[in-house]
Amino acid sequence: MHFLPFVIAIGFLLASYAFYVEFKFNEAQRLGLQYRALCDIGMFSCTKVFSSEFGHLTQFFGLPPISNAAIGMAFYLFEMLIERRTTLLLLTSGASCVGSLGLFYILTVILNDFCIVCFSIYVVNFTTFFTCLRRYRRTAAQTKHATGGATKRK
């Protein structure tokens, strides 16, 4: 029963690492230096992805540019707080799956790149959703069984 908090914590750690890479890249750029993160593998660069215009999606909605990684960190903290509220977690994790699909499209089609950190975050989001969905269905089945299969009618 402790699987979901562990998965959500991994999401937080991945988002934190993405934020760290962004910070180090910006610091190196300010000093006129090159920065290569551990997640920059061969021709694929998570640094390039995080530092692209798509690394701050809030700007596309008329908001100040806020790092996707910072939003992710806040999101995973929120998911940790609501982890026992199955329906709410199902909704938030479902929304994160939709967002992950959009970000995956941006990553592969628009940026023509691959980011191991990003992909790992997508796996965390889908794992959270499907684990929560299984919990939701199990709880619904137990409730139905406990009430003798009766349903309320008006």
Structural features, described:
There is one protein chain. The radius of gyration is 19 Å and the shape is elongated. It is built from 5 helices and no strands. Helix 4 packs antiparallel against helix 5 (116-146). It has helices spanning 3-30, 46-50, 68-82, 86-110, 116-146. Helix content is 68%, strand content 0%. The mean pLDDT is 93. It has 154 residues and is mainly α. The protein has a single domain (3-145), classed as VKOR domain (de novo design (two linked rop proteins), Up-down Bundle), CATH 1.20.1440. Its main location: endoplasmic reticulum. It comes from Bodo saltans (Flagellated protozoan). This is vitamin-K-epoxide reductase (warfarin-sensitive). GO terms for molecular function: quinone binding; vitamin-K-epoxide reductase (warfarin-sensitive) activity. Residues 3-136 form the Vitamin K epoxide reductase domain.
**Most strands sheet:** none
Task: Write down the overall mean pLDDT.
Answer: 93
User: What is the tally of beta strands?
Assistant: 0
With helices defined by DSSP (H or I, 4 residues minimum), what is the helix count?
A: 5
CATH architecture: Up-down Bundle
**Proportion of residues in helical segments:** 55-70%
Number of domains: 1
The CATH H-level superfamily is VKOR domain
What do we call the CATH topology? de novo design (two linked rop proteins)
Order of helices and strands: HHHHH
> Unreliable stretches, pLDDT < 50, 5 or more residues?
none
Shape: elongated
> Which structural class best describes the helix and strand composition?
mainly alpha
Radius of gyration over all CA atoms, rounded: 19 Å
Distance between the termini: 36 Å
What percent of residues are in strands? under 5%
| CATH hierarchy class name | Mainly Alpha
